[in-house]
Write a structure and sequence with these properties.
Length: 242
């Protein structure tokens, strides 16, 4: 546990940018973390990021920071998440943090330096500072936006079967998702469309699964009042708010 630094003098207020980078890997939602080599929190895991440069904007700064940890070209979506300003979030001095949410599609496999690794977003290791709470905020934002936008495009490869897409939604939402009901919801909202192609048949044979794609790979609000909620007992249901 870090000491309480409330009474220590502060030279000035700093500002850092952090990134919650999420990807569905091995059927689970993972977050990109790097291990700190110096105090405070030496050996703990942290979100990639760093100090905001004197002449940098927030967006360019977080992209620069991410380029040092992961190929920034792999990012399919990046948006500002939140700003934290607790005076004691960093021992010794006041540091504001502006966090971003970044998503990487499931078919990408960016190269990582040795001190950086993917971790299950729901089973975090020992985390530095307030970074565990920022990860939780990123997961919450992703789940909310999957309800009323087409943000699923940022998790998915360019083409997919509905079984594959439902697996991505299952990992992100944290509950079972029926491929049939997901297709019905997303087609009705105009988010996805068939490609006209079919996946290769599996070992058991049967009818090849149709392949789909997102109609656009730019963020759109497709149903501002819709909510995707856990099944009861199975399947994906859509609840419309009046």
């Amino acid at each position: 546990m870090q000491p309480n630094m409330r009474c220590m003098p502060r030279d000035h207020t700093g500002h850092e940018v952090l990134a919650v980078v999420l990807q569905v890997r091995d059927a689970g939602l993972s977050v990109l973390l790097w291990r700190r080599a110096r105090p405070p929190y030496e050996g703990a895991w942290a979100l990639p990021g760093g100090a905001l440069g004197d002449t940098e904007g927030l967006g360019p700064s977080v992209r620069r920071q991410l380029a040092q940890k992961v190929d920034v070209r792999e990012l399919s979506h990046l948006e500002q998440l939140e700003t934290r300003g607790d005076p004691d979030r960093v021992p010794g001095r006041r540091v504001l943090a502006t966090a971003y949410l970044g998503l990487i599609p499931a078919d990408a496999d960016p190269g990582l330096p040795g001190d950086t690794a993917w971790h299950p977003a729901g089973r975090l290791p020992e985390m530095a500072f307030d970074h565990a709470g920022i990860v939780a905020a990123g997961r919450h934002r992703l789940r909310n936006k999957l309800s009323y936008t087409n943000l699923g495009y940022a998790l998915a490869p360019p083409e997919f079967t509905m079984s594959e897409l439902s697996g991505l939604y299952r990992a992100a939402l944290g509950y079972d998702v029926s491929a049939t009901n997901l297709q019905r919801v997303l087609v009705r909202r105009g988010q996805i469309e068939p490609t006209g192609a079919a996946a290769a048949p599996g070992r058991s044979g049967g009818r090849p699964a149709a392949r789909f794609r997102f109609r656009t790979r730019r963020l759109e609000v497709t149903d501002a009042f819709a909510v995707l909620r856990p099944p009861a007992p199975a399947g994906l249901e859509e609840r419309e708010k009046a």
